[in-house]
Design brief:
Layout (H helix, E strand, L loop, with lengths): L11 E7 L6 H4 L9 H17 L6 E12 L8 E12 L2 E10 L2 E14 H12 L9
């Protein structure tokens, strides 16, 4: 397991993205407008948080997102440069809580919290296989 003395509240990460045609609500099917889709903004926030902790994990560990509570506050059209920030605000065993924010210039596009858990990759894969045996699947046509 990673060391809690290394992984501590206050750690921050920042990434920059540019809204492209494949990031908009019309393209993703999440809305009928040509602006940054909420699911894409959230994916960027998750990516930023994930990247923040990746170097603190032990070999064989990964993090998985388990909860997102985000408000999408403003639109961003294609070509907009978006800065995404994640700050680790709580470490509780394997549970990590982040404050996340996306903005362009002085306009806050979205903000909220994101929760991730540290998991052992092999155990996670085994659990996924176990659960998949209990689920129904259809063969793609």
């Amino acid at each position: 397991m990673c060391s809690s003395t290394e992984l501590k509240p206050g750690l921050k990460n920042v990434i920059t993205k540019v809204v492209g045609p494949d990031h908009i609500a019309e393209f993703l099917g999440s809305g009928g407008v040509p602006v940054l889709a909420t699911p894409m903004m959230i994916a960027w926030m998750e990516e930023c948080a994930k990247l923040l902790v990746d170097n603190y994990l032990s070999p064989g560990q990964v993090t998985v997102g388990t909860r997102v509570d985000v408000v999408h506050k403003a639109p961003a059209k294609v070509g907009t440069k978006v800065t995404v920030e994640a700050e680790l605000v709580e470490v509780s065993g394997r549970r990590l809580l982040f404050k996340v924010r996306a903005y362009s210039g002085d306009v806050v596009i979205g903000e909220g919290t994101h929760e991730r858990y540290i998991v052992d990759l092999e155990k996670f894969k085994a659990r996924t296989e176990e659960l998949s045996k209990r689920m129904e699947f259809e063969t793609p046509r």
